[in-house]
Amino acid sequence: MPSITDKVALEEHFTAPGLEPSINDVAFFDPDVLRTIEVALPEFSDQRLKAMDLAGISLSVLSQTAPGVQSIQDAALAVELAHRANDFLNKRIDLAPKRFRGFACVALQDVEAACSELKRCVLELGFVGVLINGATTGAYLDEPRFAPFWHTLEQLDVPLYLHPGLVSEHTQAFRGHPELEGAVWSWTCDTATHMLRLVFARVFERHPRARLILGHMGETLPYMLWRFDSRAAVTPLGRSLSQPPSETLKRHLTVTTSGVCADAPLRCALEAMGDHAVMFSTDYPYEDIQLASDWIETAAISPDQRIQVCRSNAQRVLRLG
Length: 321
Ligand code: ZN
Prior knowledge:
Elements: E1 7-14, H1 31-40, H2 46-55, E2 57-64, H3 75-95, E3 100-104, H4 111-124, E4 129-133, H5 147-156, E5 160-163, H6 186-200, H7 203-206, E6 212-214, H8 221-232, H9 236-240, H10 245-252, E7 253-256, H11 263-273, E8 278-279, H12 289-298, H13 303-317
Parallel strand pairs: 1-2, 2-3, 3-4, 4-5, 5-6, 6-7, 7-8
Helix pairs in contact: 2-12, 3-4, 4-5
The chain binds zinc ion.
The site of zinc ion has 7 residues, from strand 1.
């Protein structure tokens, strides 16, 4: 049995009807793995709750799996499906309100509608933030037209979980190597670059209260902080930033352990970002929830760090009270 039985996990996925990933989105999984995922994504009762119990997870924050509404070209349809997905999730949370909370799904194809939907989800449904699956039909969140969305996040004081999504174009380095697309590597490149675009586009200078969460141990960013500062300092744009990139990342970003169950990157993330900035997550049902739990129970970190990672950091970041 796990020794910490009240873990909080916050990169835990479901799918709402109409937003199931297409076979192309998940084609790289083995058929057996794919079948397990397809069964688990829309399931909220015995299987999910039992897996959480065995892993010592008392609370899962659920989010619509990728690509969700981010890849839908028809803006009105995306807005409608996001609204329906949030209502669907809210009903499922009501079945086990002590075990589940929600991240909103919003369609940034229509920025005004996304802001309204986020307000509805947080203020009326009690969701604790929003999760975006990468670029919205190719658009990254540093574009000026997304300013009202950043303003809404600040107003509501909820975090944005920036999760990988579909990568519509791969660079020449991926040519002839489809095995590097997706979770093996290209999602990491895309999501880390998305975060750095926000830093260098000064989004956080304009929105000083904005807070982000990255999964997968910070998508390699904690490992690279020194180099970002060193190399940005020899560019005119880098020198004109209000503070070094590492300071912006440390001030506005927290990371989760989803999909990375290894001590060395965990200790790097804790040392680079701070003990307050790392949170346990499992990436259910894509990753092995039990393996993630068994690992964090015995990872080579201090008892205080383990409690922060497993529970107290998430309680603070998500205002769980
Ligand atoms: Zn995930």
